[in-house]
Design goal:
Layout (H helix, E strand, L loop, with lengths): L1 H9 L4 H9 L2 H10 L8 E5 L6 H12 L9 E2 L5 H8 L3 E7 L10 H10 L19 E8 L3 H4 L4 H6 E4 L7 H13 L4 H11 L1 H10 L1
């Protein structure tokens, strides 16, 4: 009830935040469409804008659908790790919307390569020193990233990057006060909407696929 009250007062009627709410539910929908062979890749949506434009509040809202809206809730990930550790984290996400914060603050990452693997849903195939294969990590759903600089502009020239990643540059919240209210409410009410939506999607797979085909 608290979560629905938050959505009714801080999200519905605020067009850009309604978009964020929809993005937060793309993970299970894209997984169903992949199983039906209607799409082949995990979609990636990137929120690009200066600070204080509602990016953090947006990630908190999406996080509150699935888990804790707290910053240390282990659902909003970042690239501050080794490549192998990063992909190992992703394996626990299956049919969910995965959040990556401040992607443009990691200069050591070539996101054109990372975007390819994220969209394909697996880490790189690698060998140990004895020639045996290392464990490969698999994941499925969608990604929403945030940053202050365009990932496409920072990546190696690659037409495939534009096909895999959609960059959105809106100011998401109406004001600083709106963002603060949203973040505070997301910290205290969370993690009940996602399972309910997934239950409905699983019961209505054919309808979901049909709607996508019509679109």
């Amino acid at each position: 009830d608290d979560w629905l009250d938050m959505v009714n007062t801080e999200v519905l009627g605020h067009a850009n935040m309604e978009v964020i709410l929809a993005l937060g539910l793309t993970g299970p929908v894209s997984h169903i469409l992949k199983e039906a062979k209607k799409i082949s890749d995990n979609p990636i949506f990137s929120l690009i804008n200066e600070s204080s434009r509602g990016k953090t509040a947006s990630l908190r809202l999406i996080s509150s659908i699935w888990a804790s809206g707290e910053e240390n809730g282990h659902y909003i990930l970042n690239l501050n790790s080794t490549e192998l550790a990063f992909y190992a984290q992703l394996e626990k996400f299956w049919g969910m919307t995965i959040l990556l914060d401040e992607t443009t603050l990691q200069p050591g990452w070539d996101f054109s390569q990372a975007a390819y693997r994220l969209s394909k849903g697996s880490s790189r195939l690698r060998c140990n020193s004895d020639g045996s294969l290392k464990k490969r990590y698999f994941f499925s759903g969608s990604f929403v990233t945030s940053g202050e600089v365009s990932l496409i502009s920072q990546s190696s020239p690659n037409l495939g990057m534009r096909a895999r990643l959609i960059e959105l540059t809106q100011t998401w919240t109406d004001s600083a006060a709106h963002a603060q209210r949203l973040e505070e409410k997301c910290r205290t009410c969370c993690a009940t909407a996602g399972p309910i939506v997934v239950e409905w999607l699983l019961e209505n797979k054919e309808y979901v696929v049909q709607q996508f085909t019509i679109c």
